């Protein structure tokens, strides 16, 4: 548009800007409408997809996870309500609800052994036993989703990362940095000595003993005075993976 | 799974801290519970009636992990069984312990049912302990004192009468079911 000099020119420029803005808004509106329409189409296609592949979604954990990710992209949460289209379509609400109940059972049953902290892989192994299924059929993703639903209960269920592992916490006990550090260190052999803790973190004996004794009192650690070197070892059931040493009472 | 003879050992047996008496109450309670159950199950399966704290008992150490129970720990676990009525100290010094993997009451019931099922009326004590009829049953090899106590219980209920024969070997019992 050819610029005209002077006030008239300015007025034209302002009017032109207004025009563009209106057009811009219209374009945005059209875009939103189109998007909404596309989204609605996508949602119904997703429903169709879920109907068709209901059995695969139930049986295959990898497929299930990808399905969840697809749903998340379009803002659908199949677990949000036990009623409604999704729950009826897939009965998926029941699957996670049932899983959540079993997780609670296992955490309660093992609490006196591990103090309320359990390695996520251990949990999956015990779940597999309980459900008479393979560990592979119950993915980490499945457990994390079920646990996130449990959090809604305000029961203190949480997944925390310590060292290289994920632990499921089912008691309100908070772990401070000293404690997490010790747990991380214990992941190497399943236990630590006061000496090892002192060396690793450059702590005083007092600080090391304090932290270990707190963990002991919380039921997260057990003492072992039976080694022939005479050094007391603090064992942490929550970092032991081997199913050999699990006190698996969740039958 | 590890075995002791033909007995399957539970997973906790391989976890070293369980061989040290735990100071924290809740953890200790769990530990005592596990050991109590293990002792009863093991004794029942191996038909062991007494444990002597002065002799080696295979259940009290695990060479695989190089751990053994201290004398104190053994006493604690056995004392727990005693207070539950599942064991009895045989001496004041708490050196020998009678393990009642079945209570006397349970033994009495077992005997009466056995006698009913097999249509027996009179048996000698030795026949009950080592005769053909009881071979392969839980009665085989039953500790004499335990057997006598069970029989006396039955006597009090009028279901049996203990009598002496011409010699000690002939001690017997007549059942009235």
From TrEMBL, chain A:
Q: Which InterPro entries does this chain map to? A: ESCRT-2_cplx_Snf8, Snf8/Vps36, WH-like_DNA-bd_sf, WH_DNA-bd_sf
> Which keywords label this protein?
Protein transport, Transport
> Which processes are annotated in GO (biological process)?
protein transport to vacuole involved in ubiquitin-dependent protein catabolic process via the multivesicular body sorting pathway
One cellular-component annotation, GO: ESCRT II complex
Self-association state and partner proteins as the record states: Component of the endosomal sorting complex required for transport II (ESCRT-II).
Family membership: Belongs to the SNF8 family.
Please give the function described in this protein's UniProt entry: Component of the endosomal sorting complex required for transport II (ESCRT-II), which is required for multivesicular body (MVB) formation and sorting of endosomal cargo proteins into MVBs.
* Record-given protein name: Vacuolar protein sorting-associated protein
Q: Which organism is it from?
A: Digitaria exilis
Automatic annotation (TrEMBL), chain B:
Q: Which GO molecular function entries does the Swiss-Prot or TrEMBL record give? A: protein homodimerization activity; structural molecule activity
Asked if the record carries the keyword Transport, the reply is yes
Q: Which UniProt keywords apply?
A: Protein transport, Transport
Q: State a GO cellular component annotated for this protein.
A: ESCRT II complex
One GO biological process term: protein transport to vacuole involved in ubiquitin-dependent protein catabolic process via the multivesicular body sorting pathway
What is the top-level taxon of the source organism?
Eukaryota
Q: Which InterPro entries match?
A: ESCRT-II_cplx_Vps25-sub (IPR008570), ESCRT-II_cplx_Vps25-sub_N (IPR014041), WH-like_DNA-bd_sf (IPR036388), WH_DNA-bd_sf (IPR036390)
Protein family per UniProt: Belongs to the VPS25 family.
Q: What is this protein called?
A: ESCRT-II complex subunit VPS25
Record the organism.
Digitaria exilis
